[in-house]
Structures are given as C-alpha cells and as structure tokens.
Amino acid sequence: MKNLRDWESHDETLSILYQATHDIEPPAWLDERILTAAHRAVAPPQPTPATPYSRRRSVRFWAMPVALAATVIMAAGIVRLARETGEWAPRPQMPMESPSSLAEPAAKADTAPAGQRTAESAHQGSSSATSSLAPASPAAPAIRMMRMAPPSSAASSMQEKKAPIAEEQHRQDILQIAPAMRDEEAKPERQAVDRPPKEWLAHIAKLRRQGRIAEARASLEEFQRRYPDYPQPIWEETD
Amino acid sequence: MCRSQNNLLIPIDEDADELLMLRYREGDASAFTRLYARHKGPLYRYLLRQCGQPATAEELFQDVWLKLIAARTGYTVQARFMTWLYRIAHNRLIDYYRASNRGLPVSYAGDCPEWVDVPAPLEEQPEHQDDRRRQAERLLVLLAELPEAQREAVLLKEEAGLSLEEIAQVTGTGRETVKSRLRYALARLRRGLGGAL
C-alpha cells in the first residue's frame, strides 16, 4: 500500500468519499442462488436410493396372474350360466325312440299357454332361438321349466354359494318330469303287452303299416320274449 | 502461515481468505459462506460500475462465483485470494466487452491515446456541493465517465484494496501502466469535483 500513498495514485479524500457509495449489494436471490450452488458442489454425493418398486413394475408383475384368474372365472361363469339356462344340459339317457314318441313331449310342451311362451321367448332373447334350432328332446319340458325361472335367480346363481342350490333344483326338476314322460311313452306299449298275443301281433302290424318300424320291432322283440313258442309272423323286411 | 507453490510462506490467520478457500476446497461449505459475505459487495460494485447495467452485473457476478466454485479443487495459495477472485472477474469482464457490440474498449491498450485525447469533464460547481452524499453521487457520475481501464484501476484499488502490483497482476498489465491509469483517473475525478475535496 506504500505505493498507493503516492499522491498521484492515491487520494485519501477521494477514497473516503467513495466509501460513502458502498450501499449497493447484490440482490438476495442472487446470494441464495450462489450459496446454494456452492453448498451443492461440496455436498457429499447422495446415496443412490434403491430403485423404488415402481407402480408400472408391480402392474406388469400382476398382469399375467390377474388375466389368468379373470379368464378362469369368466369361463366358469359362462359354463355355469350355460348349464343353468339349459344350453349345455346333459341329455337324459333314453332308449332309442321313434320320431313320433320324440315329438310327443315337444308337442306337449307346445301346449303351454301362448302368453307364457311369448314371455319366455322375450325374456330369453337369443338363447331361445338357439334352443329352437336344437332337435326336440324329451328333456325339453324340463329345459323350458328351467328357462321360466325368474332372471334374478339365474343371476344370483352366478354366485358360488347359490350355484349348487340351482344345480340341485335343476336335477330334481328333471327327475320329477322324466319318469312322467317315460310313463307317457310306455303307455301304449304297456297296453299292447296286456293284450292277448293275437291282438298284440295285430298292433305290431299296425305300427309297421304306420311306418313306426322301430317301435314295431321293439314291440315284436318284447312279444318274442313273452311268447317264445308262439308262431312268429312273417313280414317283409322293410327297414 | 501457508506455504505457496513457490515455496513462499504466506502469512495466513485463521480467518484469512486463503484459509477459508482451502477449507472450502476440502468441503467446508460454511467457509465459502464467509468468503462470499466478505467479498460479494465489493465484487458486485466493481462489476456494476464497469458495465453500468444491473442485469448484466448480476449475470457477470454469478458467473464469477460459479467459476470460482468450479475451480475450487485446483486452488492453491499462490497469491492473495483477492487477486485470484478479481482476476476471474476481470477476465469475465473482458469477455463481456469482447462479446458486446462495442468490443474491447481502447482504454485497455497499453499505449492508450485516449488518456490525453478524452476531454476532461466540465468543471461544475453545484451550489450545494458541500452535501457529502451529493458529492459521492457526483463522484460516481465522474467515475462512470472515466475510460474503462482507468475506472477499473480505481475500483480495484477502492473496492478490492489491491496494491499497484496486484492490480497489475489482475489486469495483466505492468505496474507502471496501472500507476499511470490511476494518476490520470484521480486527476480527472478531482477536476470533476471542482476542488470541493
């Protein structure tokens, strides 16, 4: 500083006067910015946090099991629903029947009140159309009865607790109706059995003439079993 | 005491700038805070009065400190901290001048002709020159009218308290050049203040 004492390069009065202008400072935001940068520069490196179990990752992890479970539940639901609505009902094992005997129960079912059937078809929508394409079966009345169940019961049967009850109900309905149907069909045959041999054979011949060959053959077999020594009629083999 | 790269012992007290800078280099952020608090005002005023615009001064001021922060790891005590700090500031200022439309002011030339050609400010004798505050304001006006190199020499002397040698070191010129700049600058300021001093 000795050099600055030189009058030419230092003026004490000017220096003192200049000191009076020292009221200007950098703005506070600038101070903060610089200090923050300085502190960050020497801050110890932050330990890299373990990769968080991201939401995307967890979603990807669960996607496959959830999709699988959903598929299984949906498939089970569809199968159950199809069973309940009769789409997938197992056909009762019946002996070979003639077309007329098969048509009989269906005709009986058709005798249900028209209003009832209309309501039924309106309620069932497309499923009724599907069932109408299916061949008439003796179980048709049972199926129709099941279809007439209120929709709420069908919907609730989707629930696992109620499903066995619905299945049981279905089975009982079939059991109640099937014997009745079988009795109905067997009635003329039983009547024939009770007839004397001659009349029985006449009945068989009538069946043949009517084209009910299967029935005639079954009746004949039964006749032969009952009366093995009775002279057998000779008919032309038409079937 | 601190040994410099040239094996020179530089006396350093506990609160010296150099020691604070060494502590900051080692990771002591509080040392930087103290350094900054000590030098922010003079450095800001130096830049503000050299460029004349607060916004530009703020930008330059920030750049200087950020350069210092970035250069901390290579810091060694070769000279006074102030010399290093103002050397960074001077270089940033020169870059600013060069980037501006005006380019580097001619006053920075070693044999600057303007020292004699630039007309001295008119001597004004306001009626109330006795007001010290107004005198200080007048001084700032006169300072702003000085050629940049002369003004810088004055500011480095008044704000940073640097010696002729240190000013020469900072500005990259010779000691005699600095002395001349100061002599011309002070003469103009005295004239401008009209003998009120």
Short description:
The complex is a heterodimer of chains A (239) and B (197). With 239 residues, chain A is mostly helical. Chain A has helices spanning 12-19, 28-42, 55-85, 99-110, 114-124, 126-133, 140-147, 151-156, 163-194, 197-209, 213-226.
Structure, explained:
The complex is a heterodimer of chains A (239) and B (197). With 239 residues, chain A is mostly helical. Chain A contains eleven helices and no strands. Chain A is rod-shaped, with a radius of gyration of 47 Å. In chain B, 63% of the residues lie in helices and 2% in strands. Chain B has a two-stranded antiparallel sheet with strand order 1-2. In chain B, a hairpin with a 5-residue loop joins strand 1 (2-3) and strand 2 (9-10). The radius of gyration of chain B is 18 Å and the shape is globular. The model of chain B is unreliable at 122-126 (pLDDT under 50).
- The helix fraction of chain B, in percent, is 55-70%
Q: Compute the average pLDDT of chain A.
A: 67
Class of secondary structure makeup of chain B: mainly alpha
Weakly predicted, low-confidence segments of chain B: 122-126
Classification by helices and strands of chain A: mainly alpha
Q: In total, how many beta strands of chain B?
A: 2
Low-confidence stretches of chain A: 98-157
Oligomer: heterodimer
Radius of gyration of chain A: 47 Å
User: Count the helices of chain B. How many?
Assistant: 9
The residue fraction in helices of chain A comes out at 55-70%
The profile of the biggest β sheet of chain B is: 2 strands, antiparallel
Strand content of chain A: under 5%
* Number of distinct helices of chain A: 11
Please report the total strand number of chain A as a whole number: 0
Overall body shape of chain B: globular
Instruction: Write down the Rg of chain B.
Output: 18 Å
Intertermini distance of chain B? 41 Å
The two chains with the largest interface, and their residue counts, are: A-B, 33 and 40 residues
